[in-house]
Structure formats: structure tokens, C-alpha cells
Amino acid sequence: MAEQKIHAVFLLLGDRGNPTTHLQFLAEIARRAETPEFIPAWIGASDISNLLELLFTAETDG
């Protein structure tokens, strides 16, 4: 078994009034994490504000 370090754990809480919101957030996190630049940017973040920027800043196409 290959050893891999864990660099993040996400906890998503649902809302009974809108039960699919957490799934939408999960899908967006997964989409961003699959981009080649995400993991190096995440690991190289200098502080929490950089991490939040990676998660919550809207991406633009080209």
C-alpha cells in the first residue's frame, strides 16, 4: 500500500431546508481539487486566508 499524507479533512453540514446544498459544495470542492494546480497551491498556502481563497474564490475560464 502506498503511503499518502492527508492534507485536509472537510466537514460538510446539511440544512434540512435545502438538503442538497452540501452535495453541491462537495461536488465543487472535488472539481477544484481535481485541477493540477490545486494540491500544490493547497500544500503551499501560507495561512488560512490562502486556503479560504482557494475554496471560495470564483474561478473564471481563461
**Helical segment count:** 3
Helices and strands, in N-to-C order?
HHH
Low-confidence parts: none
**Ends distance:** 38 Å
Mean pLDDT: 84
What would you report as the Rg, rounded to the nearest angstrom?
14 Å
* Helix amount: 40-55%
Helix/strand-derived category reads mainly alpha
Main beta sheet: none
Shape: globular
Name the beta content range: under 5%
- What is the strand tally? 0
Q: Quick gist of this model?
A:
By secondary structure, the protein is an all-alpha fold. Helices cover 47% and strands 0% of the residues.
Features of this protein?
about 45% helix; about 60 residues; mainly alpha
Tell me what the structure shows:
It is a single chain. The protein has 62 residues and is mainly α. It has a domain at 21-56. It is built from 3 helices and no strands. It has helices spanning 21-33, 38-44, 48-56. The radius of gyration is 14 Å and the shape is globular.
